[in-house]
Amino acid sequence: MISENFIYSNAYLMFYPTIQAEILSSGQGNCSFSNAVAGPIIGGPFTLINTEDEIITEKNFLGNWVLLYFGYTSSPDVGPEQVNLMAKAIDILESKENLKILPVCVTIDPHRDTPVQLRSYLKEFDSRIVGLTGPDNAVRQMAQEYRVFFKKVEEEGGDYLVESSHNMYLMNPKMEVVRCFGIEYSAEELSKDISKEMKKIPS
């Protein structure tokens, strides 16, 4: 029997070269996702749960600039680095440019990342980071909408890791993706490019 993870990961890999080409063709981490006819190619509605067990949808974030990252609390290296990067970038934006952005972290490992676990993890980096989890099918649907690749990799003893892409998405106040950022960014570079996008739209 073919597993759901196998189907999902292979479906993603079919489209991954096209997605990466879109990213690379428009500059370092700059994603051109708009489609004048069909609307945004990446992104969409979602219903998840925050770390206070409250139901959250995309409508809760309307009116805010959002920096969105998909990760998981047991990530051994890149995940913590990216969450720390997010925290440092919003600090720079607020302290140096007086720009407000809402950091949001969606877990791709909802089986282990309960609201309590996610809250405890994110608090170690920055209490302003909004953590989202939920049923596996809801998380998977959102990941598909945002073209986020992830798959479970079984290890000895019944444990597992999660392989995933590590892009961050910058969402405008209409919850539309305007940029994506890869792991090559420093906090200074990330905050600088976010600032450029935010200043394109009058406050």
From TrEMBL:
SUPFAM superfamilies for this protein: Thioredoxin-like (SSF52833)
Any matching Pfam family: SCO1-SenC
InterPro entries reported for this sequence: SCO1/SenC, Thioredoxin-like_sf
Signal peptide range: none
GO cellular component terms attached to this protein's record: mitochondrion
Highest taxon above the source species: Eukaryota
GO BP, sorted A to Z: mitochondrial respiratory chain complex IV assembly
Family, similarity comment: Belongs to the SCO1/2 family.
UniProt-recorded name of the protein: Uncharacterized protein
